[in-house]
Amino acid sequence: MVDLRYEIDKIFDEYGSYALLLRNDKKVRCKCVNELSQAPKDTCQICLGTGYINKAERIRMRSKATSSSETLPKVVNFTSAGSIGIALRQFYIDYTVRPKKQDLLILCDWDGVKPILDEYTEIYEIANTEPMRGDGGRIEYFIAVAKSDPINMELRFVNLQRNADKLTYYITAR
Ligand SMILES: [Zn+2]
């Protein structure tokens, strides 16, 4: 039997790229937030006045729109992507990631494990995610769908924390 997770892992190794997944439900309060008034400091250069900092992860993914000549090998085409309109963009994401609606997918350049957030960075807001299941019902990977136009946001890389093998990125988005 074909182990799809393993096959997809190999595809990511060969054709995938790294992106940051900024989880909408994982935020920490910025130190500038006033205890009494609960108000953030407008001029704060860390949270950009938003009052919180988002936690993000470095994930492997594959964007379907990257190049028309590279198509995903047949192994992952076992299911139709459904009614995907032309104004949408699809991302294939590792089964461990479990992306959710409203998470932000940040396509950026990298300096090692450090993200480079600049004018070439593209931000997509995930409109929907679909777990793609194999024959036994096991989730083999996710398809995340976003509008094809990147959204316009200001991003700031605040900090990177290493905990064993896990990297946590602190990113401010406004
Ligand atoms: Zn702040």
Q: Could you explain the architecture of this structure?
A:
By secondary structure, the chain is mainly β. It has one domain. It has one helix and ten strands; from the N terminus they run αββββββββββ. The protein has one helix at residues 4-15, and strands at residues 17-29, 52-63, 88-94, 104-107, 109-111, 114-116, 122-133, 139-147, 155-163, 166-173. A six-stranded antiparallel barrel has the order 1-2-3-8-7-4. The chain has a two-stranded antiparallel ribbon with strand order 5-6. The longest helix is centred in the N-terminal third of the chain and has 12 residues, at 4-15. Residues 66-79 have low confidence and may be disordered. Zinc ion binds next to loops. The site of zinc ion has 7 residues, from loops.
- Average pLDDT works out at 86
Can you count the helices?
1
Helix content: under 10%
Side-by-side strand order of the widest sheet: 1-2-3-8-7-4
Structural class, by secondary structure, is mainly beta
The domain count comes to 1
Rounded to the nearest angstrom, the distance between the terminal CA atoms is 47 Å
* Relative strand content: over 45%
H/E topology pattern: HEEEEEEEEEE
Q: How many E strands?
A: 10
Strand count, sense and barrel status of the largest sheet are:
6 strands, antiparallel, barrel
- Categorize the overall geometry: elongated
Rg value: 18 Å
Which ligands occur here? zinc ion
**Low-confidence regions:** 66-79
